[in-house]
Amino acid sequence: MNAAGLLPMRVLIVSDAWHPQVNGVVRTMDTVVSHLAGGGDTVEVIGPDRFRTMGLPSYPEIRVALWPRRKLAQMVDAFRPDAVHIATEGTLGWAMRGLCRARGWRFTSSFHTRFPDYVQARTGLPPGLAWRVMRRFHAPSSGVFAATASLRADLEARGFTRVRPWTRGVALEQFQPEPSDPWAGLPRPIALYVGRVAVEKNIEAFLKLDLPGTKVVVGDGPQRAQLQRHYPQVHFAGWRQGEALSRAYAGADVFVFPSLTDTFGLVLLEAMACGTPVAAFPVTGPLDVVAPGTGAIGPDLRANVLAALACNRDACRRHAEGFSWAACAEAFRQQLVRVEPNGSQALT
Hints:
By secondary structure, this protein is of the alpha/beta class. The chain has helices spanning 24-38, 69-79, 91-103, 115-123, 128-138, 149-157, 204-207, 224-230, 242-250, 266-273, 286-289, 301-308, 313-320, 325-334; strands at 10-14, 42-46, 53-56, 59-65, 83-86, 108-110, 144-146, 163-165, 190-194, 214-218, 235-236, 254-257, 278-280, 295-297. Residues 343-348 have low confidence and may be disordered.
């Protein structure tokens, strides 16, 4: 048995977001997989990297699997899972959903991304139809895992059922205050953004602010070239990972999170773990993660940035220490269900 008293299981995770992509879904699932394997489970992740793929229009870095069902079925049969979790609603997610439905298998799913809002941000189309598609996708799931209380309430208000709590964690051993300053030479204070440089992140709401010091962007994406031309005074640093990313957070004076559509925002925890306070809008994610004294939340992003500069960095670190990846993985594991329709659903 593992630490939670559960017998080892064969857990299959199907995700359209997987390596080499760099985003919160990949980081979450990768960390959970590591914890499950460390607890004795056998875990298989099936992602787009194992299929013929194409890049999404206007976002070629994101690859989607083409006609995956037959090959996916062969992989599933070879693995013989005890439990199936569908992490995303892309082509692989739909294919695995269809396979489970055809076989009468139970499965769980998770809601990581507000795709209807992303569609609206990219195309201007009303999100109503996309929300209906998302609701249909998750309807047969035995449990829809959602990261925050405000997100769960929103999903339930939209007609989603069997919504379950599943929070996130932060790698405290990696993200911590650092004595070195990667932004030496740039005028202070440093206002930092970390994440994809894409329209759905609402990053321009940050870049256009009139702020003292320097605005820094760590990340890349389809909007980067355009935004670099429009905002030459902003320092675009590209992607950073590992220790370099930790130093980037720790060397900033305030972390700015302009997104209106994220479901959690792992970068919020990473910044606070490095002692950096947060400025954000009052939306899902910041409302659930940022505690009093660790940042400023409100409709005026500029005022939030200036207010966050006065927050205590030690308080930010202490707050982040309350978020454990071990607890996140344990909650995920305990809410899985057996694929077989006979017998107990719980994996206990």
